[in-house]
Amino acid sequence: MKYSCSKCGESVDVTTRKAKCDCGGLWKLDYKPQKFDLSLVDQDTWSIFRYRAFMPLEGEQWREISLGEGMTPVIRFNEDVLLKMDYFMPTLSFKDRGAAVLIAHCKAIGVNSVVQDSSGNAGNSVAAYCAKTGIECEIFVPEGTSSKKIDMIKSHNARVNIVPGTRDNCADACRAKVDTEGKYYANHVYNPFFYEGTKTYIYEVYEQLHRIPANIFVPLGNGTLFIGVVKALEELLESAVIDKMPHIVAVQSENCDPFIKAVLAGEKHPASVTPTSTMAEGIAIGVPMRGEEILEYTYKYNIEMIAAPENRIMEARMALAAKGVYCEHTTAATYAAYLKYCELNGKTSDCLIPMCGAGLKSDH
Ligand SMILES: Cc1ncc(COP(=O)(O)O)c(C=O)c1O
Ligand SMILES: [Zn+2]
């Protein structure tokens, strides 16, 4: 299997240890699964790997790596809202979907040591899957990351580096280590295998509901769920399993919104922003590395963008918790954005909202 460079088109084998192309472009995976069909789903595998007929897996490593990720329920929250409970995961966030596939790839190509940067959740996931399969792991997190997430990462015997400054500074520090020490960058944004895992979010919804809801809300920081959702919906469309793209609404933080600003200006590149502090730490990405790709999808499918009102995140979190759903602040921000969307556009029915991270992970 091959990667091709998203900038210059250079093609390399996926066994490469290079995090990106020499020209600076990020890799895309040259892989198109067969047509989606529920009859090809392995009903005896109780994890995301039940969809392996549509995954670029090399070998059987996934069997020893899986922690039972995925298969999260869709619950009815009220007459308009369905919640997909993606914090019912081995490390309590949706990132396990991507990390399981990424680390299966690392194992398949013989990587034995990785580095990764994260606002916490992706680091938790990568650390857990590395622990499961015996890969050495070092995670970089920004200062201010919840101590509970840091404790979890350490518990999996991964080394943790707390980097002063923003989430973007943290990514820079980790990438410097990749460049100077040639470490394998098991990063959820750079590595295309991660998106092959997040696609299962939509496969599952389709298998569970036998349809796709009309309005799909999705948080948007670096866009790992966003890209997986769009790619999977494209596959369902091409397989004639659905007949139109649902309406997608992407949620950014009010205090860190490079995509919202780009769309307002009709730009093809994320706007340059100065992030200020937000409770939605998971989506506080000022410099999203796959920004152009995300904006291409946004224009192609008329994806709407909305900012989560910072001063209503707590209220949204309490409203969810008051009905038994205890999520982290970044996840409450998606619900706060949905409520704002309804205020601006009127009652919006048949909405699917992801509950990406568990409430016990937050410090606040
Ligand atoms: C709970 C939660 N929700 C949403 C996101 C956003 O994911 P992405 O940055 O890939 O768009 C993250 C990322 O860390 C997260 O932890
Ligand atoms: Zn290139």
Q: Which architecture name of the domain at 74-93 and 197-361 does CATH use?
A: 3-Layer(aba) Sandwich
Q: Label the structural class.
A: alpha/beta
Q: How many helices does DSSP assign? A: 12
CATH topology of the domain at 74-93 and 197-361: Rossmann fold
Mean pLDDT: 96
The hetero compounds bound to this protein are: pyridoxal-5'-phosphate, zinc ion
Detailed description of the structure:
This protein has 364 residues and is α/β, with parallel strands linked by helices. The chain has a domain at 74-93 and 197-361: Rossmann fold. Helix content is 35%, strand content 16%. The chain contains twelve helices and 13 strands. It has a six-stranded mixed beta sheet. A four-stranded parallel beta sheet has the order 8-7-6-9, sandwiched between helices. The protein has a three-stranded antiparallel beta sheet with strand order 2-1-3, with no helix packed on it. Strand 7, helix 4 (147-155) and strand 8 form a beta-alpha-beta unit. Helix 7 (200-209) packs across helix 8 (224-238). The longest helix is centred in the C-terminal third of the chain and has 17 residues, at 329-345. The chain is globular. The termini are far apart. The mean pLDDT is 96. Zinc ion (ZN) binds at residues 5, 7-8, 10, 21, 23, 25. Zinc ion binds next to loops.
Keywords:
single chain, 364 residues, alpha/beta, Rossmann fold, 6-stranded mixed sheet, 4-stranded parallel sheet, 13 strands, binds pyridoxal-5'-phosphate, binds zinc ion
Give the topology.
Layout: E1 2-5, E2 11-13, E3 27-29, H1 62-65, E4 74-76, E5 81-84, H2 95-108, E6 113-117, H3 121-133, E7 136-142, H4 147-155, E8 159-163, H5 167-181, E9 184-185, H6 193-198, H7 200-209, E10 215-219, H8 224-238, E11 247-253, H9 258-264, H10 291-300, E12 304-308, H11 313-321, H12 329-345, E13 351-354
Parallel strand pairs: 5-13, 6-7, 6-9, 7-8, 10-11, 10-13, 11-12
Antiparallel strand pairs: 1-2, 1-3, 4-5
Helix pairs in contact: 2-3, 3-4, 7-8, 11-12
Bound molecules: pyridoxal-5'-phosphate and zinc ion (ZN).
